[in-house]
Amino acid sequence: MPDKKPPPLSRRERQIMEIVYARGSATAAEVLEGMPDPPSYSAVRAMMRILEDKGHLTHRHDGPRYVYSPVVPRTAARQSALKQLVKTFFDGSATQAMAALLDMSESRLTSAEADQLATLIEKAKREGK
Questions:
Q1: pTM of the entire predicted model
Q2: What CATH number does the domain located at 11-70 have?
């Protein structure tokens, strides 16, 4: 049976997740403070409940408040999102994605960054990736 993927997040849901990831955990009021052009407090609470139902957030009680935390660690979420982005926009080609990243970079790579990339490329070659 294939893995069931969660539905994509809406723009507002992504904003909420970004804030929760940045803070580590957050209440609805803290998320509201961090949102650009925020909706109402009740809308934020409802969206956080939906994100919990979708399996993205979990909560604990802190007195009368719910404090929400991400279910998946940020590094795993980042990797999953990047994999989907490469698949969708670059036909699954890491080379095309990397070329696009380098083309859109506003600054040149430093020597240390170039060395780090070369090391990662050599490691991937050795491991057959």
A1: 0.65
A2: 1.10.10.10
